[in-house]
Amino acid sequence: MPNQNIKSIRFLLRNSSVLLFNTLLLHLLLAVGSFAEEPRFLEGGNSAEPRFDLGYLPIPTTRVKLDLSGPWNYIIEGGQSGKVQVPSAYDFQGRVTFERTFDVSPEMLDRYRFHLVMLGVNYSCDVYINGEFILNHAGGYTSVLQPLPEKVLQVGKENNIRVDVNNALDGRSTLPLRVPVWGIRNYGGITRDIFLLGTPGLCIKDVIVRTEYPDSKGAAKIFVAPSVDGQWTPKGEGKERESLGFTFQVIDRMTGAPVAQSAVVPLTQIDGEWRAPEAEVSLATPKLWAPKTPELYLLRCRLVLTVAKISSLLDEYDLNAGIRTVNLSNGDIVLNGKRVILNGVVWYEDHPTWGSAMTYEERERDIVLIKNLGANAVRFVHHPPDPYMLDLCDRYGLLALVELPVVQAPGSVLGQESYADLAHVALKEMIVRDRTHPSVLAWGLGSDIESSHPAARRFMESLVDLARSLDTRPTYIATGIVDGDSCTDVVDIAALNVSTHDPKAFQATLDSWRKSHRTKPVILTRFGTEVQQENRNGYSDPLSQEAQARYYIQRFDMLRAADFDGAFVWSFNDWRGDHPSLTVRTGDPSMHTMGLVSSRREKRLAYDAVRAVFHGEKFAALPIGSYSMSAPIIYVVVGFVVLIGMAYFYNANRRFRENLNRSILNSYNFFSDVRDQHLVPVLHSTILGLVVSLATAIVLSSIFYHFRSSLFLDSMLSYLLVSDGLKRDVVRLIWNPLKCIASCSVALFLVLCLISCKVYLLRVLFKTRIYFFHAYSVTMWATPPLLVLIPAGMILFRIMESSIYVLPSLAVLAGLHVWVLLRLLKGISIVYDVLPFRVYVLGFLSLALACVLVYFYYDVTQSAPLYASFLYKLVGGGR
Question: Within this chain, do residues 191 and 150 fall inside the same structural domain, yes or no?
Fold first, then answer.
């Protein structure tokens, strides 16, 4: 009977080995397939013609535009080539060269001075025109206005422009940094409009607009200061001498009627720069811009040449303007003399069809949906938006929070001078481009940075100084660190990101933040919850649409009670992240389904719930459903099967039972017998190794499943696994305990085999002749203490549900593995017949060296050690 059992076990072992090998092979093929994804371009772009409200660099009669959108040739570095529509976004990381030809007529070359305009090329690019280097630019979401050298363009259709684009990010020196999870998709390419702007030789380069409205019933004043660029030499003498001047006209956007005209102010050239005093007008009965009444004026700025009191137009520059005042008074945000509460949403520039190269029509649809929601504000998270989005905010009446891409930056990075220089350049480009928009409420200087680090405060102080030198609007940072934050007192608005889902923790965080910042406006820049699109199981299911709707209704009640000055729903739309996320539970680990609408803009129940909150209406009662959360029974089932099988084999096979008892109770004699070739059957060693691997796999799966919602573990997996394809597979395994147990069992048994090979190779060092059998037996029979993990794995998930037992449980598990390591080193010393001390020293030195090498590898390639402590501080180990 025992022999028959042995035969049955051998048969199962052979077939199990084949099954395990096939499983491993399948995972390797999946990983390889993940690396070999086909490069993908998301075409569409801004197909609409520029509209009257496209306020950035409009094209009046004095200027001309050479549109460079349309088909371009592309070549992927080391890969394919072809044609693609521009603007477009490529959905992979790498270098791509874009190239096309364009036509310039003789009349254009004679009449205009040309500038290259790029509204967005991600991330860095080098531009060449007709083989001549034009510029290098880093930053995918700020715009470029670059004058072209003389004679670089030529008459005809053979003009050539080449744009070399690289969208690679890293963890130390790019802006934005490589964000491990919950960031935005790092699309590459020419994602926004690109064109050549032809201006007169002397032109208006930019204008600075400011308004004054001191009395709610009095007159308003508009001041405009021009920035003029180009060369000009006056002609004539006396009364016939030419002079330059600047003036502007105010036009009612609604009626098209002129309402005011400024006097002509003279331009003078000092040290090669054109300077002019502010031109001003006064409006007796001004229309004020506000979210409910977004009244706009058109400012028609003119550069004029005057000879004998007769003026002729040299250049024209149009822009939208709104008259409004924003003050921070007594801890409130005051707009036009009245306190305003921000009811906002976080908007992501992402679409499944166009990626970040969204069309003008799709952008306007989003703004209409946001406005219909009842929102009065929108946060453009992580980077400045396309200028057209701010034009839409001006027109529809939405206050805009515009942010730098300083996201999840550790303090040590913020302390680098090179990184600060990048941030300063980006901030200047952002403010100079967008400061004329009345909709822009405040400038965001960062989000989720290590705001408790001393270097962060110095970094923020320098940015605030620069922002205040360029514009008068308030500043903020969206911090995720409540305790220890040292940056919020530097900025004007106390803004907080909240990730916790626990209602009590949420309320406590609000109270703490409000109490700490009584003299500043306090806003919640991010709060939200994930949802499954088709889940309508009632709010008892945390991933249902009902649960998402109820979440917002309850949280807005808390916000009103805490007297916050505003809050931003996270988020308006679903978006794709740059890396798979462990915490995403909706099928696609890269798709963050946090939106009030889906990625294709399908409304969810939460859209209507938030709309009711914003309009002060009651929302219909939500069904509770019958969902109940329970621990996976698979750990108990698998553990029970393994326990019964091991107990049966232990009782049925006397030799195995004796060896197991001796290996635990008298390990020295046991390993001595192995050395002296008192053979332990290979089958017994293999069965032990497989059982230990399976028991450890149950425990590992329990731990991973417990921390499946941990943002810290999510971030660390992104750094440690390196490959997005590999992480995607690991994420799917963690959420499927049975597959996770099977895969971990294979991996752990292979690790034991690899350790056996390393033990065998030590014969060269110790100059002792042994066989692989000795190394294999020592490795496998060092592991019996881990058999206790069989019953432990059955209950570990339940134990760790109580937070006080998490660390003790992990400590006990670590202690067991240290015991196994000591047994392995002891077995090696006995088999090789060397002093134990020598083996222990060599073993621990080797382990320390391996840890150092791993540390430096991940530090150089992923900057993982740099981020570990910061991310733990930011999100907490269990969240």
Answer: yes
Give 704-759 as a DSSP string: HHHTTT-HHHHHHHHHHH--HHHHHHHHHHHT-HHHHHHHHHHHHHHHHHHHHHHH
For residue 261 the two structure tokens come to: 């005209």
Give every CB contact of residue 357 below 8 A, 6+ residues apart in sequence: 42, 43, 44, 45, 46, 87, 88, 89, 187, 189, 191, 192
Range of the domain at 729: 2-35+634-875
- In degrees and rounded to multiples of 5, residue 686 shows phi and psi of -70, -45
- Report the distance separating Cα 211 and Cα 325, nearest Å: 8
Report pLDDT digits (tens) over 48-57. 454 444 556 7
- When pLDDT is averaged across residues 239-261 and rounded to a whole number, the result is 88
Same domain, 659 and 585: no
Q: Are strands 189-190 and 132-138 parallel, antiparallel or unpaired?
A: unpaired
φ, ψ dihedrals at 151, nearest 5°: 65, 10
Burial of 308 (0-12, 13-18, 19+ CB in 10 A): exposed
Please identify, among 137, 169, 199, the residue that sits at the C-terminal boundary of a domain: 199
Centre a 10 Å sphere on the Cβ of residue 558 and count the other Cβ atoms it contains. Answer: 18
Mean pLDDT of 385-402: 96
Compute CA distances 681 → 12, 231, 505, 692, 756, whole Å. 17, 93, 57, 17, 16
Residue 321 near residue 222 (C-beta atoms within 8 A): yes
Q: Is 132 left (phi over 0), alpha (psi -120 to 50) or beta?
A: beta
| Residue 824 burial (CB count, 10 A) | 20
Structure-block tokens of residue 77: 């570095």
Residue 755: pLDDT band with limits 50, 70, 90 = very high
Alpha-carbon distance of 44 to 355, in angstroms, equals 9
Tell me, yes or no, whether 866 lies in a domain: yes
3-state SS track over 114-125: EEEEECCEECEE
Does residue 1 register a pLDDT over 70?
no
Q: With respect to residue 620, please indicate whether it lies within any of the assigned structural domains.
A: no
pLDDT digit string, tens, across residues 659-709: 999 999 998 988 888 888 767 889 999 999 999 999 999 999 999 998 888
Mean pLDDT of 61-77: 93
pLDDT value at position 854? 87
Q: Using an 8 Å Cβ cutoff, are 521 and 565 in contact? A: yes
Q: How confident is the model at residue 166 (pLDDT cuts 50, 70, 90)?
A: very high
Query: For residue 375, which phi and psi values (nearest 5 degrees)?
Result: -70, 150
Cα–Cα distance for residue pair 279/80, rounded to 1 Å: 55
Mean pLDDT, to the nearest integer, of 159-175?
94
Query: Cα separation of 196 and 69, whole Å?
Result: 11
Q: How far apart are CA 215 and CA 336, in angstroms?
A: 9
Q: Classify residue 299 as exposed, middle or buried by CB count within 10 Å of its CB (0-12, 13-18, 19+).
A: buried
Helix, strand, coil distribution of the chain in percent, nearest 5:
40, 25, 35
Residues 649 and 566 in one domain: no
Distances (CA, A) of 568 to 104, 284, 383, 699: 47, 36, 16, 40
The Cα 206–Cα 292 span in angstroms is 29
- Residue 791: inside a domain, yes or no? yes
- Answer whether residue 10 shows pLDDT above 50: no
Indicate the residue among 321, 351, 378 that finishes a domain: 321
Check whether 858 has a pLDDT greater than 60. Answer: yes
- In this structure, the answer to whether residues 762 and 852 fall within a common structural domain is yes
Q: What digits encode the pLDDT tens for the residues 520-543?
A: 999 999 999 999 888 999 999 999
- Residue 137 has phi, psi (to 5 degrees) of -140, 135
pTM above 0.85, yes or no: yes
